[in-house]
Amino acid sequence: MFKNYIIIAWRNLLRNKVISAINILGLSLGLVSVILIMLSIENELSYDQFHAKKDVLYQVWNRNTSVDRLNYWETTSSPAAPTLKQEIPEIKEAVRMTYTSTMLLSYKDKKLMLRGNFTDPPFLSMFSFPLVKGDYRNALNNVSNIVITESCARKLFGDEEPMNKVVRFDDKENLVVTGVLKDLPNN
Question: Is 0.70 topped by the overall pTM?
């Protein structure tokens, strides 16, 4: 019985080639779309899920009411973090972080344009970014310290040891490498 269904379906495919091709193409595009959407959703839901303290980490957003609507954005003023920590006893630690921006790092004759952020010293103790080299408690204790990723260290220093090397930031300031992070996942 099942064999007859297959034979009839095959004959219809051969008899109506254009319509069959359109149907098969539509089905294929639909399946590919569903698979891509599912992969995108999985990536979004796994965003920052590798942090050990993810259940107690929160991001503060700003809110403003204009004439006709309510506006939200993820930036706050610089004094917000210390003020919140001081006024709300449940907050154990607070860090500020700048927008991700492009910056120039140079070491000897090598110059790299990289994306990075500025943040407060407790950042590495709050988040689970694994340090390959350095101590997360002291890596950002000085304003002139910098923590870089393994791939950045390879590009800048090659096979040399990156720890305690001085890199030039935007041709303005010297920064000391005090930590090397494991390369981060895309999510």
Answer: yes
